[in-house]
Amino acid sequence: MGIRPDEPDWRHWLNDFIVRRQGDIDRILAEYHVPLVNADGSIRVAEAEPDGYRMADYRAPTPPGLRGAETVGVAEVERLARADAILVDVLPTPPKPDGLAADSRWVPPPHRSLPGAHWLPNVGYGAPSPEQETYFRTRLEALTVGDRQRPLVVFCQPDCWMSWNAAKRAIALGYRAVKWFPAGTDGWKAAGHELVTVEPAPDPATSTSASKIAN
Q: What is the DSSP letter of 96?
């Protein structure tokens, strides 16, 4: 929803409110079977929110919201970052290309994320390994210093269930201020903001990098 800079203040407030709560608005409309419309005017098929975790085909349209979490847009993430919220990037580490010799050395491309974000790769699978679950739990405890009221902004890329799963898992771990940012790094960049290179967050329990428990 775009407005001109010279519009009345109440219209700016309403526009910001809609952007911040778009996911909740879409979820409510979907529950009442109201058709949702894409930017090009086509009808959007709403993805139903599952009871459990997404177990496969992670790069696919996601539900408009997540029960127990607040769905946020770029403007709200900006505000949350300024308010010292914890930004949690859960995009998985890229797989080693097919066809490489077993003894060949492969250097993954740099991972670009939001400034100040903590990259916790491979924690958004539907059934993570015990090591990945422990990494996610202990890393969140370290980042929040045990404060489960501390806001967590969980994201990866658009149409990616990894962030949805991870946000749902954070709720199950008892975090009470989980924010899901479905637009992720692509939405942040499209809004004119910079991305920076980040490394996997170290595991506070073992002092090893997350890359050692990938996949």
A: P
Tens digit of pLDDT for each residue in 135-163?
Answer: 999 999 999 999 999 999 999 999 999 99
Amino acid 113: pLDDT: 98
**Could you give the 3-state DSSP secondary structure of residue 210?**
helix
The beta strands (E) that lie in 90-215 are given as 111-113, 118-119, 152-155, 178-180, 196-198
Residues 6 or more apart whose Cβ sits within 8 Å of residue 119: 89, 91, 111, 113, 198, 199, 200, 201, 210
Higher-confidence residue: 124 or 109? 124
Give tens-digit pLDDT for 177-187: 999 999 999 99
- Decide: 167 and 137 in contact? Cβ < 8 Å: no
- Asked whether the beta carbons of 90 and 153 are under 8 A apart, the reply is no
Q: Hey, what are 214's tokens? A: 């990938």
The beta strands (E) that lie in 17-129 are given as 36-37, 43-44, 70-71, 86-89, 111-113, 118-119
Dist CA 44 CA 135 (whole Å): 36
